DNA sequence: GTCTATACCCAGATAGAC
DNA sequence: GTCTATCTGGGTATAGAC
């Protein structure tokens, strides 16, 4: 991993742990083992570096989700795989947590990848649910868009509850409830 | 409203808008129209003031929720009132957002009110759902604890989605999905 | 590409006058 | 109770040497 890459990876970790406002160039340099000079040679400043880090985290989330969505099994099984995938619930979502970060939301360049990620996720799930409904796997009365939003919300809210309680169990409980929701719509 | 109160209210607003790390004593003083001297006379420092502000926000959330839970109507109606209550979705939850704030979670004094609020909320909802199940209003197969976690998660996740999209509609969609979930369990 | 020196401003707090 | 002065440290960035 070259210097530029180490800077991005360290920034990703720090953004995940402490958010944008709470992450200083100095901390990034220390974690990545690089000096001021290197950082300002490869990036114009903190926002520029954060932009690269956020884009990478967003891409990763998308790829991992797509792995589950495009995998084998029925629509409900694939969504179940996505929801149940082991997650580091106590650390929060590396992308979702940025929506609660003032510094990120105030900068359009930083905000856009976050916005696009959730738009894609909900859209992808909506399509999957519509597909399941069309094939007869799911109840015709199900509203794909509402259900997709609710499912993504349960995941994001599950992180919040787990962080609040200091226990990953809450995440599992919330997802368990959501799976019950979906199961109720299987024909 | 006296000086002490203005300081607490200004801090509440700033914590809501910018989080703990992003809120400086200077900003608090400016918003409340008080000087350094006053702030450090009434409070020992930023953490002390934040503690008072967070406790007040937590109490308010609890009181507003209890209004809905203790109101008239069936269990499902009361929960629907709680979920559907107009919320400032784009500003996020004044308590929930603190779970994603490193500065808050790292300080036990600041963290405790947040933790207690969600524990109370889930517990209260679990009790309500159990009551509905016992009275025959809800399906005997419903798991009150899981469902309570899922409902609170949808609310918290709804805030995340709304912030990400810059549109309160997403919050409404997620809640719509959650209400569908509950409706499916009415006998 | 990376290093060190330097600069400026703000965060957070203390001290003592009024 | 409130004001102003003052202090230390860190955030963020630039300049120029190597």
Automatic annotation (TrEMBL), chains A, B:
Q: Which Gene3D superfamilies match?
A: Tetracycline Repressor, domain 2
**Where do transmembrane segments lie in this chain?**
none
Name the SUPFAM superfamilies on file: Homeodomain-like, Tetracyclin repressor-like, C-terminal domain
DNA-binding region (UniProt annotation): 24-43
What residues does the HTH tetR-type domain cover?
1-61
Q: Determine if Mitochondrion is one of this entry's keywords.
A: no
Cite the entry's keywords alphabetically: DNA-binding, Transcription, Transcription regulation
Q: Which GO terms describe its molecular function?
A: DNA binding
Q: Looking at the Swiss-Prot or TrEMBL record, what is one Pfam family this protein matches?
A: TetR_C_13
According to UniProt, the name of this protein is AcrR family transcriptional regulator
For this protein's source organism, the top of the classification is: Bacteria, Bacillati, Actinomycetota, Actinomycetes, Pseudonocardiales
